Amino acid sequence: MLSLPETRRSKGAYVLTSLPYIYALGNVEVRFPNKSIENELIQSLGLPKTTRPIDNGGFYSVLSQPQNRYLARKLFWVLTIDGKPIYILLPTDPEGLDALLEAIRPSACPLNWSVVVGRKGPVAPPSRGRLQVPMVLIDHLFQKSIPPESFADEKLRSSAEEMFQKMMQIANNKGATGKHRALNYLVVRYPAIYAKATEELERNFSLTSVEADSTPSDNRKVISVVFSFSQRETGAVEKYFVRVDVTEEFPFIVTEMSPCFVR
What we know:
By secondary structure, this protein is an alpha+beta fold. It folds into two domains: 1-145, no CATH class; 149-263, no CATH class. The protein is 28% helix and 35% strand. It has a five-stranded mixed beta barrel. Helix 5 packs across helix 7 (192-202). The chain starts with 7 loop residues before the first strand and ends with a strand.
């Protein structure tokens, strides 16, 4: 499998030095490393060599076939946000490659996002082509519908979508900082935020801001995320907060959603 460059040698074996964690949301796309691989895949599809471009459905139809796994291992797997390449994704085992294939499977749900949990390495060297973006070792990759598919009611989905859009408005969220990792974790793993948005909507409150700040904690990195809701008629503001521990790779809730009282 692909790997990051070895960075340190210990007792005859190369090991990776400590790498920062990421918890990123985006879309997985496939890129060709060179013309040879591109033409090989087009030939596998049985298409004319002049065919450009190939969508994820075309990639999946070829790469999901066992006899074409050699191609899947040769391609660049890229996480994009709004169509812009953010990371080159490197599977560390066969299961990682399976997860990447699942990420490009055509879906009936247009709101599916790919969630990447891993470790961020250096920017890709020139040998990786023109994609000068950081490489990420994938430790976990899964698909998530945002807002949750369980919100069948149009009103509930509307409040959930509003919550999601507000949280994603924080600029340049690549899931690399503690604050962004906490926000992205809440978006995909903490349905209570959507329940609260729906509850507030019923009271004619709308979400007006989401703020994330570090919270002092003994030997732990904890992020407090504050949600502000404003009453549409009176302008009264209510705030709620949740605390997320992002010390290690997998964030977790420290304090459940609770009222925030300003002193």
